[in-house]
Structures are given as structure tokens and as C-alpha cells.
């Protein structure tokens, strides 16, 4: 049984609608709004992280491993329910909550391969309720990324990696940590913001490293561990996503779009575009416009 199968309303936002296998390998995000109601006590095979967005404090009851808790849920509070933990809910006001679902085997793989962490049994701490506005803000950024017309998959995946890194740093049950340096959530967010703002410029790895206060060597290694891509390849994908948006919304020539997205010339742009999408820019543009006309 899955959490979503017993929640009394359908999600208003659902990351399963993203066409991205890489993002699905990390986490599932759903945003729910529901009138006062309850959920029966169940134990699920996945981890669940609840992020409260409701600006109005409200009464919530939780039955957790046989213990009844009656408390006030504040905006910015998080609840972490590890897999196989019995938990039931009753909320006395309209809910506005993000539910992050994590498969234990996928979290284990991310921790080991990307962060060099060895997780203890249970993987995550049991947190009935705790204020963590930074983690909640990261969840809100994931929703914002999903709302982008184009490029949402890349940005969602990037922010999902930020979210998991922050989650494991604060709430992971870690047996052993690798010796490599890791980004803090704030450091990685500065790098991503810098790339989003300056993708059209000539950017070096050294400039990216400066945003995180890392040496170029350690930055490149840390970035690839967390993001799954080298800094250069991530920047190229970001540029291509921006180019896609311009191809759909602007009538500029390929050369103008190429230069606006940080490519030195049209030939380089076309080559990278085809490498990452399998189509030339002109062909991709024609296909997208044909689909739009049919709709």
C-alpha cells in the first residue's frame, strides 16, 4: 500500500507527471490540500517527509508506533516517518502539505554513490514534528521548478539532489562518512542560482567553484557526486533547456538564439543540441510546433 492510496484527496501537484526517469530515481513529490479529515494508522514500505506550508497554525493529531500526539502544526514544520513506522493522522484545519516519498533502496544508492555515506538500518531519524524552514523552502523550490514550461526536469532533478543532500546531512542515520568534502545546501544553491543567472555568459569551472568557496579540483568532484553530472555538462544541459524555450517563443535566428544561450556559434549550438536531444534545433522546433497546432 502507498501513502497516496489512503490520503483523502488527490494531489494538486505530482512529480510523477514529469517525464524524467532520473528525477523519479531520486524522489516523488506531491502537494496536497484537503479539508479536515483523517488517515488510518498504516506502516508503509517507503519513507515519507511532510513539509507544512499552511501559514495558519492548526491542530494535528498523530498516532505513531502506539503513541498519541496532539500538537499545533506550524508553517515550516517537518515530519519524517521512516519506512515501516506505523503512523495515523487527523488534522483539524485545511491541509497544505508537501509529501516527499523516498524508496529506501534508492535512498541507499544515492547516499552511497553520490555522497559516500553508509546508512544505518532505518536510514532516517524518526521525527514526529520539528521546525525546519530551510528544508521546507527547498521543497517549495521543487514545486516552483515543476511549474516551469521547459527545463523543469533538469531543475527539478537538481533541486531534488539538493533536498536529499540536506535531508541526509540533518536527519540521516549515518554509520560512516566518506572523506570527500560535501556542499552545504546554501553553497550548492548559490552555484545553481549563479548558473541560472549567467548561463549566457562565458563561465569557467573556477567561477562556479568561487560561488561555493571550493578549490576548482574539489568543486568539480563534489558537484558531480551530488548532481550526477560534471559542472560543464550540467551547464550545457541548462543552456539547451533555455534554447528550447526560445525556439518555441521567439522568432530569432538560430545564431541569435545560440549566442543568447552562451554558445560561441551556431555550429557548436547545433552540435550540442543534437547530442543532448537527438534532433537538430530546426527539426525539434518543427516537431514541437506541429504538436502545438494539433492541440
From TrEMBL:
InterPro entries: AraC_XylS_family_regulators, Homeodomain-like_sf, HTH_AraC, HTH_AraC-typ_CS, Tscrpt_reg_AraC-type_HTH
UniProt cross-references to Pfam families, sorted A to Z: HTH_18
Molecular function GO terms recorded: DNA-binding transcription factor activity; sequence-specific DNA binding
SMART domains given in the database record: HTH_ARAC
Keywords: DNA-binding, Transcription, Transcription regulation
Every HTH araC/xylS-type domain range: 189-287
Endpoints of the signal sequence: none
Keyword Cytoplasm applies: no
PROSITE patterns, alphabetized: HTH_ARAC_FAMILY_1, HTH_ARAC_FAMILY_2
Protein name: Transcriptional regulator, AraC family
Species this protein is from: Ferrimonas marina
Amino acid at each position: 500500500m502507498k501513502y497516496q492510496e489512503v490520503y483523502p484527496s488527490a494531489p494538486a501537484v505530482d512529480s510523477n507527471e514529469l517525464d524524467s526517469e532520473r528525477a523519479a530515481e531520486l524522489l516523488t513529490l506531491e502537494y496536497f490540500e484537503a479539508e479536515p479529515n483523517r488517515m488510518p494508522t498504516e506502516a508503509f514500505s517507503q519513507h515519507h517527509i511532510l513539509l507544512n506550508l499552511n501559514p495558519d497554525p492548526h491542530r494535528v493529531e498523530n498516532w505513531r508506533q502506539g503513541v498519541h500526539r496532539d500538537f499545533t502544526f506550524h508553517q515550516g514544520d517537518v515530519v519524517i516517518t521512516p519506512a515501516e513506522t506505523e503512523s495515523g493522522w487527523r488534522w483539524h484545519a485545511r491541509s497544505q502539505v508537501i509529501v516527499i516519498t523516498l524508496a529506501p533502496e534508492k535512498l541507499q544508492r544515492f547516499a552511497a554513490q553520490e555522497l559516500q555515506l553508509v546508512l544505518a538500518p532505518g536510514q532516517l531519524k524518526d521525527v514526529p514534528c520539528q521546525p525546519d524552514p530551510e528544508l521546507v523552502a527547498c521543497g517549495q523550490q521543487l514545486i516552483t521548478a515543476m511549474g516551469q514550461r521547459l527545463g523543469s526536469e533538469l531543475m527539478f532533478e537538481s533541486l531534488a539532489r539538493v533536498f536529499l543532500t540536506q535531508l541526509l546531512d540533518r536527519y540521516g542515520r549515518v554509520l560512516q562518512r566518506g572523506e570527500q568534502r560535501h556542499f552545504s545546501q546554501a553553497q550548492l544553491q548559490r552555484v545553481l542560482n549563479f548558473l541560472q543567472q549567467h548561463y549566457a555568459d562565458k563561465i569557467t569551472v573556477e567561477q562556479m567553484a568561487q560561488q561555493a568557496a571550493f578549490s576548482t579540483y574539489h568543486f568539480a568532484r563534489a558537484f558531480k557526486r551530488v548532481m550526477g553530472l560534471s559542472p560543464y555538462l550540467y551547464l550545457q544541459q541548462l543552456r539547451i533547456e533555455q534554447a528550447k524555450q526560445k525556439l518555441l517563443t521567439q522568432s530569432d535566428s538560430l545564431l541569435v538564439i545560440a549566442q543568447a544561450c552562451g554558445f560561441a556559434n551556431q555550429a557548436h549550438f547545433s552540435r550540442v543540441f543534437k547530442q543532448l536531444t537527438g534532433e537538430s534545433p530546426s527539426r525539434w522546433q518543427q516537431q514541437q510546433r506541429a504538436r502545438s497546432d494539433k492541440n
